[in-house]
TrEMBL record:
Residue stretches making up the TRNA-binding domain: 13-114
The protein's name: Protein secretion chaperonin CsaA
Pfam families linked: tRNA_bind
GO terms assigned for molecular function: tRNA binding
Lineage: Archaea, Methanobacteriati, Methanobacteriota, Stenosarchaea group, Halobacteria
């Protein structure tokens, strides 16, 4: 595995992509989706958004209360009738699952990632 993408301007990245810390407040099954995903409600400190996220390696109760890193300015995407309003970030666990990204220590919900 190499790093194959070309370099981008860091100032443009930080001004174009808005990532924030949010806390998962609810998790529901999403059997209508083609992929194995959950419906999440994520609190960004004053605003709650929903996301379709492939974090099904976790039990639903284990996700509630966890902080996640999410891209909040991609616009909404409709998946099987569900409006996903943010992208919860994660990495491949090597077995087809997704490990969510989170801050090392708890921070205030809505904190911007930079």
């Amino acid at each position: 595995m190499g790093i194959d993408e070309p370099d981008i301007d860091p100032e443009t990245f930080l001004s174009d992509v808005e990532m924030r810390i949010g806390e998962v407040v609810s998790v529901e099954e999403f059997p209508e989706a083609r992929k194995d995903v959950y419906k999440l409600e994520v609190d960004f400190g004053g605003e709650t958004r929903q996301s379709a996220a492939g974090l099904t390696r976790y039990e639903k109760d284990d996700l509630v209360g966890r902080q996640v890193v999410a891209v909040t300015n991609l616009g909404a995407v409709t998946i099987a009738g569900f409006e996903s309003q943010c992208l919860v970030t994660g990495v491949d666990d090597g077995d087809g699952g997704v490990i969510h990204l989170q801050p090392e220590s708890e921070v205030e919900n809505g904190t911007r990632v930079y």
